[in-house]
Amino acid sequence: MTFNLREKHGEYYCVVTYHLPVGGRKERWVPLRISTDEDRKKEAKALVGELSQPGAFDPNDLERTNQTLKVLGLFPFDENWRPDRSSEPKSEKPKKGRPKVFTQEKPLQKQGFQEVAEALRHGHDVRFGDYLNYFINVIHREEVSEVTYASEATVISHKIAPWFNGKGKSLKKLKPEDIEDFLNEQRNTGLSNNSLRHLYGYIRVALQYAFKRAYIDLNVADRVDKPKKNEFHGSFYNDEELKLLFKVVEGTHLEFAVRMAAIYGLRREEIVGIKWDAIDFQYKTITIAHTVSEAMLDGKYTILLKDTTKNKSSFRTLPLSDETMDMLLSMKEKEEKMKALFGNRYNHKYDGYVYVFENGDLIRPNWISYQFNKTLSENGLRHIRFHDLRHSCATLLRHEGVPMEEIQKWLGHSTLLTTEQIYAHYDESGKSKTLETITGALSGKDTGNGNSKTME
Known about the structure:
Layout (H helix, E strand, L loop, with lengths): L1 E7 L2 E9 L5 E11 L5 H11 L10 H10 L38 H12 L6 H12 L6 H21 L9 H13 L4 H20 L26 H11 L5 H10 L3 H5 L6 E2 L4 E4 L2 E7 L2 E7 L9 E4 L2 H21 L22 H14 L9 H12 L4 H8 L4 H8 L5 H15 L13
Antiparallel strand pairs: 1-2, 2-3, 4-5, 5-8, 6-7
């Protein structure tokens, strides 16, 4: 992506340009709420710099992008990615010195990590932000997956570490109040409790390592209350909405992803990771054993191909319906035709993968989310996240009386508790039976349980 300062109709804009997965480019114009008549061009350039920081502007994540815009005092986008100028009075001018989402401070490089390690080894104090960067890039990186590392490293190096360094906080002199101040400031930017829990977790894990290595005498994070977890209330489509969605995506590149998410409850990474050798056409089964993820590793966009799933339970074999079998056979036939048509222009890098474009390019997880949101908007369908199709699958199963244990296996959850915590409150059938029981008892009607009595 590129970020450029532009002038239009007497106002400064940040123009974000990025390439679409299917070819071509897209532009998003972000009004900076600064008039070109004002002597504030330097401030406008600073805002462009803030928006260009890794993770600040995500064309595939409207909620995350709007969170950034809110912190910077800019207009959020509506569901069609248009600036919503009605969200604030037009006459209200943003104040100078807006709170920053990310810092321009350059993260530590390899030499800096070595200096931190040497200082810790000799019992010296170091800036807390420097220690966090050292911990995530040197110590913790080997303990987690590449996707997890990429996500955590981005947040730590561009959000957490700069805040503590900017406040002059050091590892040995860190106080519980410092962590509380950080979390409170992040809460004021609009972050949810669940997001705050992640930030708290990153800090606590890093401090616990320092405590075990005797770099500090106490893990002060243990004296800070962990933000309470928000109860999950995801959106989902009912059966009629799913049928309409199936009709809308029929014959498009999105159809396979939508059907596999809604019927089988697969995650994006699992859908893209399906290979032909995971499909048993004789016994009509599909094995979920490979995933494809996207991440920024060491400043570079990377596609991660892994012969592992999210957890052990995610490795599962599911039966295929006749309809799904027909769709897969049709996709296989089309792929062979495209290979012949494109000839040496065909991309054979992803041979063996089911979900590819006509030229052999792999369809990526972020493309699925982007295209899904676009399809809903263009067809006037109720907005949900693509991941909510997985929730739709589970809630329909639950509504039809499928036991939680079976839903857990179908979705590949690691524990039954996870399934119950997410989906138990969607089941209204039990409440209806409870109502029938109590009203029947009070009216003297036989509810079928043999315990009703005639009231005298």
